[in-house]
Amino acid sequence: MQQHTLSQTVEINGVGLHSGLVSKLVFYPSEPGTGIVFIRSDLPSKPEFKALYSQVVDTRNCTCLGDADKNIVSTIEHLMSVLYILGIDNARIEVSNPELPILDGSGEHLYKTLKKVPLVAQNAPRKFLKVLKNVSYTDNNGNTVSLSPADEGLKVNFTIEFPSPIVGHQEFHGLITEDIYASEIAPCRTFCEKSQIDYLQSIGLIKGGSLENALVLDGDKVLNPDGMKNPHECVNHKVLDAIGDMYTSGFFIIGELTAMKTGHFHNNELLKKLFSDNSNYKLV
Ligand SMILES: [Zn+2]
Prior knowledge:
Elements: E1 2-6, E2 10-15, E3 22-29, E4 36-40, E5 48-50, E6 56-58, E7 64-66, E8 72-74, H1 77-86, E9 91-95, H2 108-115, E10 119-125, E11 128-131, E12 135-138, E13 144-148, E14 154-161, E15 169-175, H3 178-185, E16 191-193, H4 194-202, E17 215-218, E18 221-222, H5 233-246, E19 252-260, H6 264-275, E20 281-283
Helix pairs in contact: 1-2, 1-5, 5-6
The structure holds zinc ion.
């Protein structure tokens, strides 16, 4: 299996969730071994950020990369997820804003747009990260995420439990194939309670937030006029996020991810733990 990059430049525009400002993404084909690199094209120094777990500086509402000068690129997880499933090893991506466009809160537009661009096989072998030992991270509330060995590909088990009667208990179990991703995962939007939105807007955040870019719940009601995309939209979105976060390993993973009520913070701690001991994995 060779490394792949895009065959041509691609542009995607949308509004940033927090700033409400237009954020332009420009994707460039890149040399083998580049990995995924973001460039802040709006800043005079054009700082670059490797999309790696070790460069993550904030995981509170999204996965956010940062540098020593406190420049950031935030909300990379949906795009990272799409790059993973499309098998894009190498890309340089300019972003004209501290945050990536939120689009409809899912990975669908990113997936459909990038899927149309032919990929180029490059003259370098792809390395996969094969998990050899069970590695887990558990927070103070007992919520756990783990990676364990698997025979092929990335398998995901995800369980969520929310007090909302609409979300409740949901589970996802399966090998992540592109077919399943395209039909079941990419269209699933991020979700939140209306009370959270009201609060975040009151403190000047989510200026770009609306029913256009999230599934918004209010008690036992879905406020979006078209309702949910599927009954498992919430857990499937968590799977979308987790795939994106796993790609900040810098590798395609052969292993089984099992997550119980966890998020970006846990995913990042898990990768730090995985890489803290090189007997946990091998590159194949
Ligand atoms: Zn998300």
